[in-house]
Design a protein that fits this description.
The chain contains seven helices and seven strands; from the N terminus they run E-H-E-H-E-E-H-H-H-H-H-E-E-E. Strand 3 and strand 4 form a beta hairpin. The chain starts with 10 loop residues before the first strand and ends with a strand. Bound molecules: glutathione (GSH). Glutathione (GSH) binds next to helix 3 and helix 4. The site of glutathione has 12 residues, from helix 3 and helix 4.
């Protein structure tokens, strides 16, 4: 592992390209246009995140870990909150309103449930991790049902996103493992609102891709609407 950076200055992300949790942080760094350096961790097959040097950064042995001017912070959701509080002067991504912060935090916690289900199923299918795949898929579907229903209810009251009518860190936290669900054998067929939300997410300025999450295929017309190859407009 490339250990600690040579200098205390700057933003560093201990990262694994196939990790949806690391991708949450990469996405937000991109949305905020923050200069940073990625420090690759050999998660598989090297299990570098379980080695002594990494455990000094995060005793839980999990990625991602952020280092900002020497301040070390594990956990994707904690990192999203920290980056929003420190670097988003517009306060758009994590508004300073107690009820909104409570609601957003509810979805940040839900994002960890998605990790425990959809991401677990993907680890089983893609990397051969030994776990109860039926249980992981069942819980994944339960989470997706809840998310899809919530998006439908929000749409009725004019909200396109999980908390507001604009994206917040709640959407960033939930997006990766919903978009990657099919890699764990969890079909998105029954979740049309979630599929539309994925497409909306991919249209955000500074959106970046990861393996398994390709860009939106389509073209913009003069009104900025997206059209796919069949000429169908999708929002
Ligand atoms: N709550 C943590 C979970 C992070 C997590 O599960 N990371 C995975 C990689 S995507 C990991 O490091 N797994 C190893 C382990 O849990 O032992 C977060 O959101 O960052």
């Amino acid at each position: 592992m490339q250990s600690k950076p040579n200098t205390q200055k700057g933003l560093y992300l201990y990262d694994y390209i196939l990790s949806g949790n690391c991708y949450k942080v990469r996405l937000f760094l991109s949305f905020l246009k923050l200069e940073h350096e990625l420090i690759p961790i050999d998660f598989f097959p090297g299990f570098e995140h379980k080695q002594t040097e990494f455990l000094e950064l995060n005793p839980l042995g999990q990625i991602p870990v952020l280092m900002d001017d020497g301040f070390v912070l594990p956990d994707a959701q904690a990192i999203l909150v920290y980056l929003a509080a420190k670097y988003d002067s517009t306060e758009a991504w994590y508004p300073k309103d107690p009820k909104l912060q409570g609601r957003i935090t509810q979805w940040l916690a839900f994002a960890d449930s998605i990790t425990g289900s959809c991401s677990a199923a993907r680890l089983h299918d893609k990397l051969g991790f030994k776990l109860n795949i039926e249980q992981a898929r069942k819980e994944g579907h339960q989470n997706l049902r809840l998310l899809d229903d919530h998006l439908v209810e929000n749409k009725i009251v004019g909200k396109d996103w999980l908390v507001l009518n604009r994206p917040t860190i709640a959407d960033i936290a939930c997006f990766p493992y919903v978009a990657l669900a099919e890699e764990g054998g969890i079909s998105l067929n029954d979740y049309p609102a979630a599929r539309s939300w994925i497409n909306r997410f991919k249209k955000l300025p500074q959106f970046i891709v990861m393996p398994g999450i390709p860009p939106l295929h389509g073209m913009k017309n003069n009104e900025g609407e997206f059209f796919n190859q069949e000429g169908l407009c999708f929002s």
